[in-house]
Fold each of these.
Amino acid sequence: NMKLNLLNTPSGLKPLYDDDYEEKKKLKIGQTYSAEIKLIRNIDFHRKYFALINLAWEYQNEKTQLHFKTINNFRKYIEVSAGHCDIFYSPKLKDWVEVPKSISFADMDNGEFSDLYEMVKNVIFSVFLRNISEEEFIAELSNF
């Protein structure tokens, strides 16, 4: 199985990145292949999502940062708080726990990711940045 990112042009589908071009070169000329076409998520919006998390992390005081230990733990906490999680029973804890769902390109389309972005932004401003102007933060985010 091979996965390629392709750009649709008037002359046909073209590999988007060098890695995609290298993969396409493995296909034999004259051979017939089956493909499933799926619109990939907007990479710029993906970067904006992580900039949102990173900037919110930078706004946290040392005590909060020490509590979460890593920015990745902070992100996962926010995603679970936004409701983007699965619930399962942990035998070790003998309790139900919430685990963030994947945000990979394969697991979410643009609409789902956009919804997650808004839910995460709401958690950030209602829990972590209550005293920060959202307009000021978003303006700073564009420079991040």
Note: The chain has a mean pLDDT of 92.
Amino acid sequence: MSLARFHAPLALLLLCSGCAGYQLGVDSLYRPDVKTVKVPIFQSGSFRRGLGEQLTEAVVKQIESRTPYKVVSSSDADSELNGKILYQRKRVLAENSFDEPRDIETEILVEVSWTGRQGELLMKRSAAPEATGTIRIGQAINFVPESGQSLATAHQEAIQKLARQIVDQMELRW
């Protein structure tokens, strides 16, 4: 019986000491030196109207809901997240016997950069010192017009996925 009393506190001590180097919670995933982010409207090289505005809105919502950062519009923010839609394209993957599109893919490619107040790069694809400050992220979505899906719904789905991927890149590297 006395051996069991000795093992229980020892097991608890070992369990707690094993996690001494780790932090818990969402704050440990993000930079502690950044509190605010300015997100200008994403530029767009696409001829589709409103894609830049839609992506900016989705990114702002993702930052506000998933990170400890506050999105502000003032120039005295701790950091700035800039983005540009490089292109949006649509291509037919399959046609029916009347040469009507049956399966269509739309793809959006975005370039983003996140810099601090002093111009330092906060977002890098890799830990390599020569890594550039811009990251390219692409998202392709298939849609079937016959089932009631449209280019607009496919764009909305792609924008939501792109926004999540962009905010994922704001996490600290391990």
Note: Residues 17-23 have pLDDT under 50 and may be disordered.
Amino acid sequence: MITENMIGEVRRPGRIEVVCGSMFSGKTEELLRRLKRAKFAKQRVEIFKPCIDTRYSETEVVSHDHNAIQSTPVESSQNILLMAGDVDVIGID
């Protein structure tokens, strides 16, 4: 359902899902699973990670099992709204 607010901006309802847990509990693996599933469903997906996180890759989100997905490194969370554009799903590691 798409709605229009009082100043003419088009808004689509959305939701926030949080995957949380202790270290090595599979959080990144679950994020990757959900994002790959969204891509398979032909949804427009954009993935972001902090540019300071270069453990496995500078441009990919990588799980401890070495599963990976291409991402956009960002300096600050403020950049996400500017860079998200017209997408259906936003993933943040």
Note: The beta strands are 3-4, 10-11, 45-50, 60-62, 68-70, 72-74, 89-92.
Amino acid sequence: MSGNDKNMTIEEEIELIKQKLEEQDKLSKEYLNLLQRSQADFINYKNRIEKETKDIIFIETSKIFCEFLGYRETLLHALEKEPDKKLKESLSHLLTSFDNILKRFKLEKLDVLNKDFDMNTSDCVSKLEVTDENQNNKVIAIVEEGFLQNKRLIKPAKVVVGTYVKKE
């Protein structure tokens, strides 16, 4: 017993100790709750930063890949127009090597030909009238290939879309 509490009974002193323990228990639970929330906030922050970092890396590498894909398009046009058989064969080997490099970086061509036009993966550069109703709103030609990397769009395909016109 303390000097001021000489008149306090043991029961009163026990009750006072219990109250102080309850207050300390309540305070420790508040601190634990605060600590757990801070820990959860930190984990969420860390996960968000990791995702944002991955997104930035994807965006920046996509820009680089798009530059190289422009060279691939030039190579394809040269291959189509080249009359010399030997030079055409060399360009074909070069294109194959180029495509193998793209595969190593997990780039794959979009499969859009004869499929429904999807504005999320393709840009319509032209519409062409078709007489077959089944070709309506379908990709009927590819002007430039589109590419994905790890199932994410790097470059949309540039396509020609069919528009059904009923013959009279």
Note: The CA atoms of residues 105 and 149 lie 8 Å apart.
